[in-house]
Amino acid sequence: MKTTIDTPVRPKAEQDLYIEENIWQQQSLGSLVADWRSQFSDNVALIEDETELTYAQFEQRVITRSAGFRNIGLKAGDHVMMQLPNSLDFIISCFALFQLGVIPILAMPAQRESDIAALCELSNPVAYIVPSSYLGHDYIAMAQRIVSACSSIEHILVASDTPTSTPYTSLSQLDSTEYMQVSNIDPTSTALMLLSGGTTGTPKLIPRSHNDYYFNAKASAELCQFNEQTTYLAVLPIAHNFPLACPGIIGTLCQGGTVVLCPTPGPDEAFPLIEQHKVTHTALVPALTKLWLEAKQWDDTDISSLQLLQVGGAKFTAEQAIQVPDVLGCQLQQVFGMAEGLLCFTRLDDPLNEVVHTQGRPLCDFDKVRIVDEQDNPVAQGDVGELQTKGPYTIAGYYKAQAHNQTAFTTDGFYRTGDLVRVNQAGNLIVEGRIKEQINRAGEKIAVAEIEQRLLSHPYIDEAILVPVPDAYLGERSCACIISSQPVSLSEVYQLLQEQQVARFKYPDQIISLSFWPLTAIGKINKKALIKRAEDEYVEPNMNQLKPIPYIEKTISVQSTSMQLAPRISELSSHPFKAIYECKSAWSVGLGKVAELYSNGSEITLQQGEKTKQFNGKPFPELMAQALQSIQFENWRLYGVAKFELASVFHGIQTRTEHEKSLQLFVPELEVRLEANKAILRALTEADLKALETLVLKADTSCVQTESAAALKPLQTPQINTQYKDEYKTSVAKAIEEICNRQYQKVILSRRIHVPDSICLNKSFRYGRLHNSPARSFLYQLNDFSIAGFSPETLLEASNKGYISTQPLAGTRSLGNSPQEEQQLREELLNDTKEIAEHAVSVKLAQEELEQICEPSSIAVSEFMAVRRRGSVQHLASRVCGQLSNGKNPWHAFQALFPAVTASGIPKREAIEAILRLEPNSRDWYSGCVMIVDNDGFMDSALVLRSIYRANNLTWLQAGAGVIDQSKPERELTETIEKLSCIANYLIDEKTLEEAQS
Questions:
Q1: Is 587 within 8 Å of 566 (Cβ atoms)?
Q2: Taking the CA of residue 334 as centre, how many other CA atoms within 13 Å lie in the half-sphere pointing to its CB?
Q3: What would the pLDDT profile of 296-325 be if each residue is shown by its tens digit?
Q4: 587 φ, ψ (degrees, to nearest 5)
Q5: Fewer CB within 10 Å: N-end or C-end of the chain?
Q6: pTM
Q7: 552-557 and 577-583 as β-strands: parallel, antiparallel, unpaired?
Q8: What stretches of 435-501 show up as alpha helix (H) in DSSP?
Q9: Hey, what domains does the chain have and what are their CATH numbers?
């Protein structure tokens, strides 16, 4: 990077490129005024109060002001400190200085003596332009003190009538009608200096050239589709880059529009101006947008002319962003940029989701951006890193900051923005925070932006800032500074973060409440003041928070196999809630209920004892994370089921299910985990643990003394061949017709078979398990319903490290009656194009579903088209796996995969709709899932097939078959018979058994 002592410049090759590509117009900002007058002479250019200036009048005012500046000796290259509020004097003076090649330094009206004195010492201005007073502050008195300390200042110019004291001059008296020859200004030279937006220390000076700033404004105006009908309301302080040129005032004038000047940004002043002048465009920062949104709830001013609201300057929450179109009645555009250069905009034709959740993409193709890690190495697509940039309107260095420039810019000229960002698949940036906005708490790094965002989800917290406070023990502790509608305690903040599954070290150590933010002179939040207040108010917190209730554990030896013992334990227990889940070689039994969690798909209810808490208003996976974090037991395991109808909510067919417990999970009071001749007993009290040990030992003994499995005689096979045979074939034929009409590609249709209510689910489960080779087996009784079965496949397996897999099965053949027949049927299955096609599309869909939630590079098919024996049938089986992306939890995976493709169809939404139309009964638990979930993130979920169901004094079986365009109703009926046999052949009738024993 080539530099001068004061102002670094771009390499000549870059400058030549921008000129050659017509990015730089080789025109000074001062010369634009005449061009605008020639194009838009009679259009109204500027409005302040009752004063309106056409473009012709604006040019004349600039010429006379420029002549006045020249007459007092201002010349090209001089610096002028300009500290004016939003006013005609600001704009006229700026362009008059541009015409002379004099460089205005744009200070904020809110800056005070210490900042201005430091800036003057750095820049040596020859003049200082101020209002006489503004918002109660005496600028002339401040100017006198500044001049006494800064010998370079020769003139104090005041934007008002002539002051009584001399030698100060009013701008109106300065204006001159003398003819002045237009200066020939080098367009590559510095046109103005903006101030950096740091929250601490003296701002740095940002030199912007005529070429780059003209492009900045004009290209922004074209992107935002400004034109002669545009009326732009300048509400933010126009010394900021955003309202000045992004596209702001200069961009509006470039297109022949009208600029209305608003002295302060409050809705009480801005709304009437919007109504009066039919304002179409304006720009705000998020805090002001929030104020406008709130004001519109009671203010009836007509602001319907407003077409576009730009929001930038800080992270805009999605919760507020989504309100803009409805509340303010205009389109939202997010803008992310910096006075140093790079501008990113969401586009006017971006989908609303992009506009709400991202900060846009760069203004032009010549913007170069890269996202890097701490070693300046590029991060992977979608990962968070520091944004670095250079381009035709990004500076090459700060003014007189040679040492700082060595670290602020890379050796190849990229500006290190300090912003942490990632890029989504659409190419839009998402700003995640600032590199330096981290708190080092006892060696643990806390991202400030993350915790601030989570604090804002509290219903009473309106604004939140997390600051680091020096601490003798931690190095730095974190303090949450909040503005809230009602008092919020530190314990309430802990509860909030616990519900969101936030790591404990990220919890704030302190909280302070304020009515308003202390501000720096340039209008940024004064974090130094917040830290000082946190130090002054700090009191050692009471850490006696409620602790989770732990389980007590004991391991005992047992003689029986887990397959025998688990159902016997369940059978001897009188608890209305109980569950058995076999996962590979481990069996788990839950008895009783100390907490229950259930959902209708849109809201979640958690019951613990007499306490009930509801969670709603967020996506299902986030609600589940919150609810699980509120469970008051330590190292819990949940047992539960999900009905098929939950899928209709996940796929947008309906907003909630009819049954409030379409997902139902419980934390057991007692638990037994069985592995290889040992039982791990878990209970919440010593008394319960002793009672559980007695129960398990009794069950272990009775497994040996009671009837052997061989003595169990199954019920004569119910009429699985004939029940609802014709109705089912009619439904299949209808589905084939719809598939041929391309309504969907595949659907799984099922039929229900009723069986006697005297069937014993425990004994049928135990006997059936001996004759099945399932992926998972289960027996659940949740108060008023029971299911038992042998799942052929897992829906979702999630490790506590976020590694997930799913096992789609599609393609079925019977095992036959001999090894030879089984092999023959297997070869037939592997060569059946219909079955292979069915399976391939299922695997493809599983991959696509994982792409929504997993790191793309981690997705793999670890097993493809293996043949798995499941009871009396064999299936084609594959396994698709991947690593969850950052920000995703196992419930994102559950929502993406549920229901299993092999029990619904392709595309899922259309297939689910077809099932709801073509099947005579609601499916309930059939083709839903059973699961166990641990508090560390482990989840194992199995598809509910090959099962027996009991509810509402009815007992039934159910099975289905995949229907595609090549299907035949008779063959699909046969497939249901084959699948039903996996459970129907092993049903134990309690009455028959009693008669045999008597």
A1: yes
A2: 27
A3: 988 889 999 999 999 998 778 888 899 999
A4: -115, 140
A5: C
A6: 0.52
A7: unpaired
A8: 448-455, 490-499
A9: 28-41+54-186 (3.40.50.980), 437-537 (3.30.300.30), 725-993 (3.60.120.10)
